[in-house]
Every structure is written in structure tokens, then in C-alpha cells.
Amino acid sequence: MQNYDIVIVGGGPAGLAAAIAAKEHGVESILVLERDQELGGILNQCIHNGFGLHTFEEELTGPEYAARFIERLLEAGISYKLNTMVLEISAQKVVTAMNRTEGIMQISAQAVILAMGCRERSRGALNIPGFRPAGIYSAGTAQRLVNMEGYLPGRRAVILGSGDIGLIMARRMTLEGAKVQVVAELLPYSGGLKRNIVQCLDDFGIPLKLSHTVVNIHGRKRVEGVTIARVDDNRKPVPGTEEYYECDTLLLSCGLIPENELSKGLGIEMNPVTSGPKVNESFQTSAEGVFACGNVLHVHDLVDFVSREAQAAGKYAALYVKNQAGHEEFGDIPVAAEQGVRYTVPNTVNPGRMEEALTLRFRVGDVYKNCYVAVYLNDQRICHRKKQVLAPGEMEEVVLKKEELHAVADLTQITVKLEED
Amino acid sequence: METRELICIGCPLGCPLKVKTEQGQAPEVTGNTCRRGEVYARKEVANPTRIVTSSVSVEGGRQKVVSVKTREDIPKEKIFAVIEALKGVKVQAPIQIGDVIVSNAADTGVDVVATRKCPVLNDLL
């Protein structure tokens, strides 16, 4: 059995930032386990620019952003294993992993940081009728084929879903010489960033059809076309609105799902809204000494926020290992998400353990205009911030101050909600 | 006088902007909610620019392709010219981040540089 103070599952942006932060907070024995053949995770295939505006105050591409963190990890002398798949984590924090050179190995850790990221919603999960021909890809798979393997997956494409990866791939396929005919989005608004709609679709004259979905896929061996129809308010296709598009490729960009098989195996308490673990203010899950950060916890829009969150998780894991986590005299106060707020991360806050300021991240369930984000401690409103617009595709945050929480006697609940006035 | 319609990229609000331009006068921006919309519209009308990212083939490298970008933003109408200049380009591994792949791409005065390193193919891997 190998022994480490902290084992980190995943060498993408979250795992890298967590490892570096843990080392900076005095833990020497750290191991990062990565199943791909290199560190950096999904950033390596995200060759477009727009990363790092918050972290480095310059616009980097994905591989450049990853390289900066990888460099810091190497400088810090942190150990890592590539091509290594984690199979199981036990309640005693024994990590079972395997690779081609060492076979199956067991690694005992004092703390484990979950940083496995997320995966794309598949065709099976979307229940699209039709045959199962070649030519149907998730947008991320197509991105990997074009940007890393050097293959163009098709010449005429239709994209279902207006998530950011789909929008980015609409532009990428167009630049590589493919004809992207249309992007269809089931919802009446796009899940992608405005900037991507303008620079990836409008710049190239690619139409975005909101409230539309794919109702049939044609072709037995290879995709020959798809039928798109408008949907009503209940997201059901409206008969008579069908349009046929001839194409050889259908890309799916219909949402990301945190990859939590290992967490579930551990019996960790999950949040059904995010499909990620529930965590406290220290990013610790319901399993003691097991922390979570990045897209495995909840799907982010910007990698900069993943790095920030993971730095916090890495720090708290280090404090846990060194037995320096704060006092627990206050108990964990639940954070409720109400009235338009779908979820918050973290789910509980311990005023004794929290830092002077704690960032609470959340998403809303619909598009809201001219409303207020309100935070309550018991019945007392401590924050009432006007927002011109809130959209499900953009993560929001509020900051809780330690002194505010300590000022309330018998604090039993923190509530985040939207108010009209 | 010319009027152009744009969508602001400053925030998720996505204000529909109208920009009126008249010879010798500063463009008039309407439809914006905040100052950012006005700044964006002026730039987008006068001199729209983009950073172009793509990939080129590598020989003898661990990867088949290496990702690249224009080191700075280039005029928007030159996007396809830059992409054309990258067609058929083959580079030899090893590549470091920042290595110039094509200098002065499509006469933009801007170099296309590598954004990812590509080590020499190592059979042990």
C-alpha cells in the first residue's frame, strides 16, 4: 500500500489548482491521479481563446491556461501518475487505481480531493428517435477529433443544443471548411455565453433556432439528414413545423453532468439539482476528509472560477490533514435556495470554520430581468442586490461575511432567493 | 448615413444595439443599457477584430496536430485569409508554446504562434 497525505482524483484544472494550493499550505505528500496521457484535462482540446481573464488578466487559450498550472505543479515537485484510472475510493480513504505499468494499486490517503470533472449528456439521455447511424457526436467529442486528432468529423452539420461547446464547434467546423446549417435549442433562450453567440454564430451567419429540437434522424449507415421542429411551451414538438436539413453530422451540445460514480460508490450525500456532492464551506463532502471541487461539484461556465474554487478546496484539505481546521462550536448552518435560485454551493456554512469572507455560488432557474438577489440570515435580510438580468447559463455569486454571521444570535438558516422588489 | 444593428456581448442581457454612423461625426449608439454597450458598438463598427485559433499538422510529434492562435487580434474580415494561410502547414516536433508557426499571416502583420507544446514522439509513452 502506498501512502500520501492528499490524493487528488483528476489532473484537470480543478485537480491542478487544488494540488498547488494544498502544497502552498504546507502539505508535502500529494499525489494527482489522471486517467489521460497528460495533465490539463479538457483544457487541452479547448484551443479557443477567452480563458484566464480573471486569473491572469489576459486572454489565453485552453492549452496555454493549463500549461501555466502544470508548470507550477512541476515546480512545486508534486507527484502525479498519468494513464491511471481510479476504480474505487473506500470510506477509509483507500484509493484503488490501475495503470499499465503498475497494475492495480491501493493508495491510502488522509484526505481525498474529488476533481473528476463532468461529461456530456449523450444521445441516449436525450431520447432522440431515429436510426443509430454514424455521424452523431457530442460536441466535445467532435472538438477532440478536430483539435487533437486532426480529423474533421463531417462536411455538413446540424448542432442540437446551444451550450458553449456547441457554439464553439459551430465556428471551428466552419473554419475547417464544413457547412454548419443551423443550431437548434430546445429552450426559448441559449445556454451559452452571449459572446459566443455573437462571435461563433453571428460572425459566420449561422442561424440559431430557439424553441426547436431534433425530432428525427435520417440515414441507416451514416446520418443523411435531420428533421427539426418547433416546440411549444411544454417543450413538445408542434406538428406541421417540421423542417428537413440534409447533413452528414449531428453534434449534441445539451448540457454537462458531473461525473460522480466514485462519489456515489463512497456513499456521499448528493445534491440532486447539481448532480454533484453536497459540500460545506470548506468544500468537504458528507464523507469526512473527502473534498470536492470544479465541475464534479457543479458545472461552471468559466475555468477561472474552477481554479478559484479548487484552490479553496486544496487549502481546506491541507488544513484538515494538518488538523488545523477551525472550531466546530457553531454547527453547520444550512443554506436554502429559494424563489428562482436553483442551488447554492456550498450547502452548509459553519461560522466557526469559515474565513472572513465566503463566496456562495448559485444558478437561477430561468431568465429574470430587473430583480434583486437577496440573502437572509434567519429572517433578517443582509443583502439586496439589484440585477438587470440573471440567466441559467451564467453562474452568480454573493459574498457572506463572517462578522455578519457571528452577529446573528441562534442562526439556524441562511437563505438565498430572488425578489421582485 | 448608415445604421447597423448589433447584439452587445458585455453581459447576458445582450442589448440590441443600433449604431448610426455619419461621415465626419462620432457614431450614435442607441439600445444600450450601460456604458459598455456604447464602447463595444463603437469598436465593432469602426474596427472589429478577433483572435483566430486553429490547429496545424505536426510531424514526428507526440500529437498529430498542435493548436495555434494569432498572437494578437486581427481585423475580422481577415479571419478566413488567416485560416487559408494555415492550410497545409506542417511543422516539425518539438514545438514550444509561443513558437512562431506562420509569421505575418495573410499580411496582417500578426504572427500565428503555437499555444501548446508538442514533444518528439517517444515510443515508451
Task: Describe the protein in words.
The complex is a heterodimer of chains A (421) and B (125). In chain A, 22% of the residues lie in helices and 35% in strands. The longest helix of chain A has 19 residues, at 303-321. The mean pLDDT of chain A is 93. In chain A, the strands form 8 sheets. In chain A, strands 1, 2, 5, 6, 7, 8 and 21 form a 7-stranded mixed sheet that branches. Chain A has 3 domains: 1-120 and 256-325, FAD/NAD(P)-binding domain (3-Layer(bba) Sandwich), CATH 3.50.50; 122-254, FAD/NAD(P)-binding domain, CATH 3.50.50; 327-421, Sandwich (Immunoglobulin-like), CATH 2.60.40. By secondary structure, chain A is an alpha/beta fold. Chain A is globular and about 65 Å long. Chain B has helices spanning 35-46, 79-86, and strands at 2-7, 16-21, 28-30, 49-50, 53-59, 65-70, 74-75, 90-92, 100-102, 112-114. Chain B has 2 domains: 2-47, no CATH class; 53-114, CPE0013-like fold. Chain B is built from 2 helices and 10 strands; from the N terminus they run E-E-E-H-E-E-E-E-H-E-E-E. In chain B, 16% of the residues lie in helices and 33% in strands.
